[in-house]
Inverse folding.
């Protein structure tokens, strides 16, 4: 039996052993068979209008609410199958339908379709928040890298020190303007979370012989 390791809820963190295989396997089976979109390798997922939305809420999301509070609502859950490191970005407004975006959450499933995670991978969350979502994207309100480049400022104790270990796919000019909040190592069934305004990225997992990695991605909001 897995033991859930709890930590204080902050802007970013990880809760080990949060979900069991019994809870996740039916969800993974369904979502992994959905048609994959051309954007971010995300499947169509289960959103608020989907017929299986209540099923996923009961199966998994009500457990999230026991930790994060009943006020937290689910926008969408999608299946991730990444083959390339994800670049620096923010999730703020990305999937919001109503209310105020709150936490993005990631539930690791496997690397190279292997649940044992013999090859390491991580999600890296920074202290810096996205304040540039308005930018030129007035309709979708995606993070705007052009505005980031205009406004970024060099920081002390910055993320350049993590470049070789985790962040070799990012530019020094960006790393110099970021400080690391959380380096979350992927483990099956853990819950990695961060404020959707926080800048974040994957590590350069291809350096660790990871050809692909699989996870569930949740986006949430509060009214």
């Amino acid at each position: 039996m897995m033991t859930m390791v709890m930590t204080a809820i902050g802007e970013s963190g990880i809760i080990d052993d949060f979900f069991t295989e019994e809870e996740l396997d039916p969800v993974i089976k369904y979502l992994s068979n959905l048609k994959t979109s051309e954007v971010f390798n995300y499947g169509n997922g289960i959103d608020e209008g989907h017929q299986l939305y209540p099923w996923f809420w009961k199966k998994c999301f009500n457990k999230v609410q026991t930790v994060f509070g009943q006020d937290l609502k689910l926008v969408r859950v999608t299946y991730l199958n990444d083959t390339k490191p994800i670049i620096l970005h923010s999730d703020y407004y990305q999937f919001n339908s109503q209310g105020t975006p709150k936490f993005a959450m990631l539930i690791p499933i496997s690397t190279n379709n292997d649940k044992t995670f013999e090859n390491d991978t991580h999600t890296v969350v920074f202290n810096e928040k996205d304040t540039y979502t308005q930018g030129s994207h007035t309709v979708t309100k995606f993070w705007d890298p052009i505005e980031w480049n205009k406004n970024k400022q060099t920081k002390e104790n910055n993320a350049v020190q993590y470049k070789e270990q985790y962040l070799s796919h990012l530019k020094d000019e960006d790393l110099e303007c970021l400080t690391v909040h959380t380096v979350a190592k992927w483990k099956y069934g853990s819950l990695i979370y961060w404020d959707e305004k926080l800048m974040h990225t994957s590590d350069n997992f291809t350096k660790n012989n990871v050809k692909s990695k699989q996870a569930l991605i949740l986006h949430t909001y509060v009214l």
Remarks:
- The beta strands are 12-15, 46-47, 73-82, 100-111, 122-129, 180-185, 191-195, 198-202, 213-222.
- The two ends are 36 Å apart (CA to CA).
